[in-house]
Every structure is written in structure tokens, then in C-alpha cells.
Design brief:
It is a single chain. The protein is mostly beta strands and about 270 residues long. It is about 5% helix and about 40% strand. The protein is built from two helices and 19 strands. The strands form five sheets. Strands 2-1-5-3-4 form a five-stranded mixed beta sheet. The protein has a four-stranded antiparallel beta sheet with strand order 6-7-8-9, with no helix packed on it. The N and C termini lie far apart (about 85 Å).
Length: about 270
């Protein structure tokens, strides 16, 4: 080491030497080491640098001072470089795929609980199922007469419910794409929100679904029989959201600026 300079050898984490030894100032920092290695390798990768077991976090001189008793500067010092990340992360602005299918604008989309499928509702009055593993279409479901405004997966993944601008609710089999039972009709205006009864609240009395509508009402359906078991009609404006809680209570929010809680013991037996 003379005149504040030292000879170094850049070696990859696999032990491959990158070029001949170079004489560099002791004052070089990690950013400057990065420039040198990028030039040697003709790459833009980000690297970490180590001398023996010490990572270079500031200048090379400070790292060498930490191990002055064990390292000699009379021969070229080995600087080991390795990628900062094992996996290359793609920019989030990059689209991985485009899957066409709907003839009109998509209005909503919802993932299955296991993350393998996506359901979408569109202005073309169809519900579509998509395979997320292959990024390809699975089923086209026709049953609605107007825009499909909302979709909701059953907690088991065995059913998907959809509601439309006409006020109808349909239930679909995600495996086959076929409709389960008849169209659930009864709302006088569009259906904008759906909620299934939680699995742990279910009994032998059936599978229940709640729908909220612009007609100010919430209807609870037993989908196996295709019947409306109760209509909840205390709100004075349209229903904007409904949730079915683990205590078997239905919570509803409305444009009338209220949230109501509904207990259904006499309708959905426990």
C-alpha cells in the first residue's frame, strides 16, 4: 500500500475472478466499487462487497482498518461481490398478461378464497370465471338481463353469487360455470351488494345469501330452494353495503346515513 492506494481483485460469490488486479484509492466507497464492478461485468446489477468476513459499508480503508492484524496489503486484496437480491423483482408498472373476453366494460371482479380463480361481472350482462394459474378464461355465464354490478364468493368456494341492474341475483357453480337453481327475483331496483352466511353459522336448514338493493331493502335467500325467507325494509334509502358477521348478524349500510344490525334467529335457524 502506497500513496493511499491498494491493489485489489474482484471475485464473485462463486469464486470467479473478474479481470486483472486493479490499483484503486483506499478512499473508494461502496458506490464507487459498484461502478467499477458494473463496468467490469457490463451490467447494472446492485452488489454487496466483502473483504474477508467484513462487509464494505463505507470506504475500503475503514473496512481494512477493522482487520489490520489479519490482512496484508502487500499483495492484491480480494474483494468479494454478490448480488443484493437473489430474486429479480419486476417493476409493478409492467403488465404480465392481458386476458380479453368481455364485450362491454368490466364493472366488478372478485378473487376466489384459494386465489386460483377470478370472477368478473360486466356491462355485457355476463359473469366470467378466469383461471389465474394459466391466465385464461374458464366459463362464460349467461343468466342476467342487465349489467352485472356485484359478485361474491361463498366461503367454501362452491358457489358464486352475482347481482345485476335489473334487481336479479344468480348463483353459479365455479367448476362448471352452470347456474345453480333459478334466478332469484324480487328486488324492484338494482342489486349492489351481496353477503353469504359464514360457514360456521350454517346449519342443515340451507345455504343463505343476503342481497342489498337500491330499493331500500335487504333480502335473505335460501339458494337451494330458491326462496326469499325474509325482507328487511327499515332503511329509507338505497343499501350500499351489507356484511354477515360471525355472530350471525347482518350489518347494513345505506345512503340514509345509518348502519343497521339485523338478528335473524327466526328466519335463519341456529
Amino acid at each position: 500500500m502506497a500513496d493511499g492506494k491498494v491493489f485489489v481483485r474482484f471475485v464473485s460469490s462463486e469464486g470467479v475472478e473478474s479481470g486483472a488486479p486493479l490499483e484503486i484509492p483506499l478512499t473508494v466507497c461502496t458506490a464507487q466499487l459498484q461502478v467499477i464492478v458494473n463496468a467490469l461485468l457490463n451490467t447494472t446489477e446492485k452488489y454487496q462487497f466483502h473483504v474477508s468476513d467484513y462487509e464494505v459499508t463505507d470506504t475500503l480503508e475503514k473496512t481494512l482498518n477493522l482487520q489490520s492484524d489479519t490482512i496484508s496489503t502487500e499483495k492484491a486484496i480480494e474483494i468479494r461481490y454478490e448480488p443484493q437480491a437473489v430474486f429479480r423483482v419486476r417493476a409493478v408498472t409492467r403488465c404480465s398478461s392481458t386476458v380479453p373476453g368481455h364485450a362491454e366494460a368490466l364493472i366488478n371482479a372478485s378473487f376466489s378464497h384459494d386465489g386460483t380463480q377470478l370472477a368478473s361481472g360486466s356491462g355485457d350482462a355476463t359473469v366470467r370465471f378466469w383461471d389465474l394459474t394459466t391466465e385464461s378464461p374458464l366459463h362464460v355465464c349467461k343468466g342476467h338481463k342487465q349489467w352485472v354490478l356485484v359478485t361474491a364468493w361463498h366461503p367454501s368456494g362452491l358457489f358464486l353469487a352475482s347481482g345485476c341492474k335489473k334487481g336479479d341475483v344468480c348463483v353459479w357453480d365455479p367448476k362448471t360455470g352452470k347456474q345453480k337453481g333459478k334466478v332469484l327475483s324480487g328486488h324492484k331496483k338494482y342489486v349492489g351488494t351481496l353477503a353469504w352466511q359464514p360457514l360456521h353459522c350454517a346449519t342443515e336448514n340451507g345455504t343463505f345469501l343476503a342481497s342489498g338493493s337500491k330499493d331500500n331493502t335487504i333480502k335473505v335467500w335460501e339458494i337451494t330452494r330458491g326462496q326469499c325467507t325474509v325482507t328487511l325494509s327499515s332503511h329509507t334509502q338505497g343499501i350500499t353495503a351489507i356484511r354477515w358477521s360471525g355472530d350471525n348478524l347482518i350489518y347494513s349500510a345505506s345512503q340514509d346515513r345509518t348502519i343497521k344490525v339485523w338478528r335473524l334467529k327466526h328466519t335463519v335457524h341456529q
